[in-house]
Predict the 3D structure of the following.
Amino acid sequence: MSVARRVNVGGRVTGAVKALATGLGLTWQVMLRPKVTVKYPIERLPVSNRFHGLLALPIDPETGKDLCIICFQCERVCPSRCIHIEAQGKGKERVLSRFDIEMDKCQYCGFCVEVCPTEAIVFVPHYESSTFDRSTLLYNLDELHRAAPKEPIATGIVGGAHRHNGHKNGTGDAGASRGLVPRERGGHAAPAHGDGAAAAGSSSSAGARR
Amino acid sequence: MALRTEELMLNMGPQHPSTHGVLRLVVTLDGENIVDVRPDIGYLHSSVEKMMEHRLYVQNVSLADRGMDYLTAMQNEQVYCLAVERLAGIEVPERGKYLRVIFDELQRLASHLVWLGTWGIDLGATTVFLWCFREREMILDLFEKVTGGRLHHAYFRIGGVYVDPPAGWTDEVKKFLDYFDDRVVEYDKLLTANPIFLARTKGVGVIGRREAIAMGASGPVGRASGIAMDVRKAEPYEVYDRMTFDVPVFTEGDCFARYQVRLEEMRQSSRIVGQALKELPGGEVRSRVPMTMKAPRGEVYARTESARGDLAIHLVSDGGEMPYRVKIRAPSFSNLYALSEMMRGWKIADVIAILGSIDIVLSDVDR
């Protein structure tokens, strides 16, 4: 009885040692591989072209006005009902008097960017919007203008109007059914890319709104 | 003089880090032995079913993302879109179907990786957590390139998916799959033969086939107890009927069997993604559906296989722009109720191992 038990224990010990050696050998191997972690606030990984960051209203460089045609589609489609639009005037004089986005309610689904017929509302690749004061998350028209990238269009997935500007997606005709074509953001246009550009990005977008 | 003994009621949670969310377990103990475990749920109730009744059919896709299981966002979108499409008779283009399958399976991989990593931490193995999250990060990056989101995508649309992946994306996925298959071998090597891991999981938390069926357990928990049921095979949706894959079934019903099922599912998911990428047809990814679509009066029951089990939606329409009633059949909920059956008779130290092995997500349990 005692002999049988001793044999059993011996088997278990060799098994444990073998398993330990395998496991530790593997972890040592992995330790020698290239590092995958980044020291986040110091280093940053670039985000993709289609990243759903903060929302912004770009200004048309030709006319100097915003591209919004006040069709209220984004306000209607927003599942969180966080977009509030008001307009003044009639006909050609019609201008936006209010365009508020409650960014604390926003769920970054991108439906507003999808339905916009003129690319008047876009995503900017800025994601650090935490704040101590909730009221700073209500972005009005001016702040949304300032958040917009300086280059003409710098958005990921956009609606119909500027489609002729060229798209580089794989199969070309893919989104044609609803006039939806993904366009890649110009490499230089993304403000929050990399660490060097991140500083510039935050000064133009988040810096502007404290 | 005889020593007086009595049962002890122990509260675990709702803030305990090992309950994977906000779950309170009321554990009745006799010394070290578990007499009974009663899960107390509802801390993460988000009322998503009711909220869906007040949103357009199109808007609900983004709700399904986060109101239900947050680790399998795409699979939630899948089941919701499937239900609406069946009710309204909307066709999905071939390419859309294949893309859906690809994203479903990548999401399953991501979800299983979270499970394996966090379960490793529960059992005291930190290494596997870091490794799993390293791979999951790659999957999230792949998602981000297509959908713009990492956790919540709002990518599926009624009638297809939002847009085509960018150029070169499929090659990146292929590269990732090659890399990933080697990593699964590593997890296997690290854990499956480890005596500490085996001692904590093998034969622990057994639930038999009959009990599992009675409790409504599905998915990996059910398949580890010998229930050979996978919705992807039993009731194929999208293009799963064209995919070749195996459904791992084990009969032991213990924690180790549940681990083996999920590990094999990772290999199979990788296989499915590979096939879908190879067969991926060209063409459109979505059919034309108006923003304010209306579903005809009626009701539909659509079921899918999520990473946690049989995820289904019962949708009732009164002919309007919004659903009249949405009932979500959450796999985590049923699997959680198999917990008491698994725990009875085991020691207090096994609570964490058993709870972790069923892979619950509390936002799925409470909805």
Summary: The beta strands of chain B are 8-12, 24-30, 33-40, 156-157, 160-161, 298-306, 309-317, 325-329. The two ends of chain B are 53 Å apart (CA to CA). DSSP finds 15 helices and eight strands in chain B. Chain B touches chain A through 47 residues (CB under 8 Å).
